[in-house]
Design brief:
Helices cover 26% and strands 19% of the residues. The strands form 8 sheets. The protein has a 6-stranded mixed beta sheet. A 5-stranded mixed beta sheet has the order 18-27-26-21-22, with no helix packed on it. A 3-stranded parallel beta sheet has the order 3-7-10. It has 736 residues and is an alpha/beta fold. The N and C termini lie far apart (60 Å). Mean pLDDT is 93; it is low at 1-13 and 611-618. Bound molecules: 2-acetamido-2-deoxy-beta-D-glucopyranose (NAG) (3 copies). Residues 115, 117-118, 121, 352, 649, 676-678 line the site of one 2-acetamido-2-deoxy-beta-D-glucopyranose. Pfam families: Fn3-like, Glyco_hydro_3, Glyco_hydro_3_C. Keywords: Glycosidase, Hydrolase, Signal. Residues 650-721 form the Fibronectin type III-like domain.
């Protein structure tokens, strides 16, 4: 062991002292909670048994106090790693040997890749870098990421942090990213993730209503089939080590003080193995529990058993992280250090993630991609044309380096650069003349427009969906004047109503880059010049401005209400006009799919005890809890042909719609699976997709009960349609 320590000191600079159970301290290393061969449960019990009430209380807050008597150091629970290790949260301190970390695209951009292995890979890099910082004494091991709230209203300032508007997409993202952060080593955690914010939180500050005071009125139906879905998948499939409850109330009860939500749903039904963070719970993000718990126990509002229960949850996570295992360099990740941060392969993954997330929205002609032979000089215009920190969005850290759009394009062509507007607010047209002039001289024009954190952010919801200030005017004037093709690149988290550009024949191409991360400019240039073929798809609906004009952000209902004119929300419930639909995104090649095989009839085994015989349930919807679900699934084989001339990656989005006549229960369609496949030009690939019947073909009735409608379900994959008939097969009366 001595040798290992010496090597580390030489190789990695500052080596971390043990958090607890230091083998060099004879007085404490022999305590039972330090014995790694005992079960974590036994060790936690032993530790709690040794703590005084005062010591316990001081462990209930994010900056947990040291217990020097037992050789335990203080611990800061609050770190963030939304898309790379972030400097938000006091647990992470950039500087010294750790000046920067790899800054991946903002989550809404990465979601557009629809690539679950990419999400896990990003989580894996973030947790490598987090472990390296922890080993160097500059980071924590508990990360309050990801944010998987549904992007319900397009104005939400934090929509950028989320994987979009669809519950299944958000749930898959949650499970994959959490696996990346936590590792796949069973009970052992690489770092502990936290899915936030449970639940129905997606309003920051709108029209005088803020998140701290907002009481979200949510129906049981919307709760079950929309707001809670990503959290359930995060806990059940991702096995997350923590959940954070939200600021708001739901139906009059603060989520952080709702025993039904936290005890019944989250712990008992979903089986959370971990801690719940925020007010009044296992761990308080703030000083409140530290200041008031002792008194609450004294006057009988709380018992020591409550305090012990909370500590068992937090200490178990610390033990799973290996914090009580003694010598830190012997931990499986104990050898990660400064040279494991911002490595070339990590930075390449940030670049690759941006390439996979960028969405091609328009390609008239087609006039894309540009050619370095014909387009030698490009006018690069717009307030985001030389963006750096704007590209990493919020909950970011300090990036290893940046490639701005201007720098990315300059690697392929000569550039003439003009901002056009001083900033994204674009209050005046003073610089328009110069921008127009540059477009008249160049072989092609790229306008990089959009938003930044001054327009959409935490505590700042957007007022509307149009481009800010005079941006639209700049784009139209430049497009009218430019000598060559004009391409519009939108940088934004939320959707933007760019109907004007969609309809303008002078604008040949449109790209949505989201907030594409530290290498965003290089990825934009890869797509512009065709060194990468775009495959991203929108993870949220792009609505016209008229959609929000009379729509209260505070109305949480997902379903449309024709009687009041309420339009409903997201592609699942809103039928009206859109600028671009959920799932939209073009490629430089063309894909055709055909269904190779799919079942026409699937029988669903149902317990008979509450149904009498089979025939009376033949046309109804069976409760999921009465079906023998197991692995019952529909297996589809789809052939994807690339009929174009360029290699490309295709995303199959599989939607289902339940039998007609279930209108008030069901979304008009629901994403049930997605699969990404690379197909060379003129090539074909067969893709197998499994759709779990109970989880994915069920719908939620008005009382919040999940049921499987029997009858004809239609499955859509692009323009391929298939119907499958579900038939209940009663297993006979079971006497209880
Ligand atoms: C998904 O992302 C991973 C990681 O970047 C990549 O290796 C893989 O090729 C991607 N899948 C497809 C089909 O493009
Ligand atoms: C672009 O941004 C980089 C980094 O902030 C800066 O060094 C450079 O001068 C900018 N280029 C122009 C032409 O403004
Ligand atoms: C099943 O139940 C229906 C309605 O309750 C009844 O008409 C029918 O005869 C029953 N069939 C059998 C096989 O018991």
């Amino acid at each position: 062991m001595f040798l290992v320590v010496v090597v580390l000191l030489l190789g990695g600079g500052e080596a971390r002292e043990a958090f607890a159970c230091d083998p060099k301290k004879s007085g404490t290393k022999g305590l039972a909670f330090c014995r790694t061969w005992l079960s974590i449960e036994e060790r936690v019990k032993d530790l709690i048994g040794r703590l005084t009430l005062e010591e316990k209380v001081n462990l209930l807050v994010n900056n947990a106090a040291a217990v020097p008597r037992l050789g335990i150091k203080g611990y800061e629970w609050w770190s963030e790693a939304l898309h790379g290790v972030s400097d938000v949260g006091p647990g992470t301190k950039f500087g010294g040997e750790f000046p920067a970390t790899t800054s991946f695209p903002q989550v809404i951009t990465t979601a557009a890749s629809f690539n679950a292995s990419l999400w896990e890979a990003i989580g894996g890099v973030a947790s490598d870098e987090a472990r390296a910082m922890y080993n160097g004494g500059r980071g924590g091991l508990t990360y309050w990421s990801p944010n998987v709230n549904i992007f319900r209203d397009p104005r939400w300032g934090r929509g950028q942090e989320t994987p979009g508007e669809d519950p299944i997409l958000a749930g898959k993202y949650a499970a994959s990213y959490v696996r990346g952060l936590q590792g796949r080593d069973g009970n052992r955690l690489k770092v502990a993730a936290s899915c936030k914010h449970l639940t129905a939180y997606d309003l920051d500050n709108w029209n005088g209503v803020d998140r701290f005071h907002f009481n979200a009125h949510v129906s049981k139906q919307d709760m079950e089939d929309t707001f809670n879905v990503p959290f359930r998948m995060c806990v059940k499939e991702g096995k997350v080590a923590s959940v954070m409850c939200s600021y708001n109330q739901v139906n009059g009860v603060p989520t952080c003080a709702d025993p039904h939500l936290l005890k019944t749903t989250l712990r008992a039904q979903w089986g959370l193995n971990g801690y719940i963070v925020s007010d009044c719970l296992d761990l308080d993000c703030g000083p409140f529990l530290g200041a008031h718990t002792q008194n609450a126990v004294n006057i009988g509002l709380l018992t020591q058993a409550h305090v012990d229960g909370a500590l068992a949850n937090t200490l178990t996570v610390q033990m799973r992280l290996g914090m009580y295992d003694g010598e830190p360099s012997l931990h499986p990740y104990g050898n990660l250090g400064p040279t494991d941060v911002c490595t070339p392969s990590h930075q390449e993954l940030a670049h690759e993630a941006a390439r996979q997330g960028i969405v091609l929205l328009k390609n008239k002609g087609p006039s894309f991609p540009l050619s370095t032979r014909r387009h030698r000089t490009l006018a690069v215009i717009g307030p985001n044309s030389n963006a750096t920190v704007t590209m990493i969005g919020n909950y970011a850290g300090i990036a290893c380096r940046y490639t701005s759009p201007l720098q990315g394009i300059a690697a392929h062509a000569m550039t003439i650069h003009e901002l056009g507007c001083a900033n994204v607010a674009c209050a005046d047209d003073k610089q328009f003349g110069r921008a127009i002039n540059s477009a008249q001289q160049a072989d092609a024009t790229v306008l990089v427009m959009g938003l930044d954190q001054s327009i959409e952010a935490e505590t700042l919801d957007r007022a509307g969906l149009l481009l800010p200030g005079r941006q639209q005017d700049l784009v139209s004037k430049v497009a009218a004047a430019s000598k060559g093709p004009t391409i519009l690149v939108i940088m934004s988290g939320g959707p933007v109503d760019i109907t004007f550009a969609k309809n303008d024949p002078r604008i040949q191409g449109i790209l949505w880059a989201g907030y594409p991360g530290q290498a965003g400019g290089a990825a934009i240039a890869d797509i512009l010049f065709g060194t990468a073929n775009p495959g991203g798809k929108l993870p949220m609906t792009w609505y016209p401005q008229s959609y929000v004009e009379n729509l209260a952000m505070t109305n949480m209902a997902m379903r449309a209400q024709p009687s009041t004119g309420y339009p409903g929300r997201t592609y699942r419930f809103y039928h009206g006009p859109v600028v671009y639909p959920f799932g939209y995104g073009l490629s430089y090649t063309r894909f055709v799919h055909t269904l190779a095989s799919a079942p026409k009839v699937v029988s669903v085994p149902v317990d008979g005890h509450r149904h009498g015989n089979g025939s009376d349930i033949g046309n109804k919807a069976v409760r999921v809890t009465h079906a023998r679900c197991g692995k019952l699934s529909i297996s589809l084989h789809v052939d994807v042909n690339n009929v174009g001339t360029k290699d490309g990656t295709h995303t199959l989005l599989v939607f289902s719609a339940p039998p007609a006549g279930r209108g008030h229960w069901a979304p008009r369609k629901q994403l049930v699976a997605f699969e990404k496949v690379h197909v060379p030009a003129r090539g074909q690939r067969r893709v197998r997709i499994n759709v779990h019947v109970c989880k994915l073909l069920s719908v939620v009735d008005r009382s919040g009960t999940r049921r499987i409608p029997m009858g004809l379900h239609s499955i859509h994959i692009g323009d391929v349609k298939h119907t499958v008939s579900l038939q209940a097969e009663t297993l006979g009366i079971i006497k209880s």
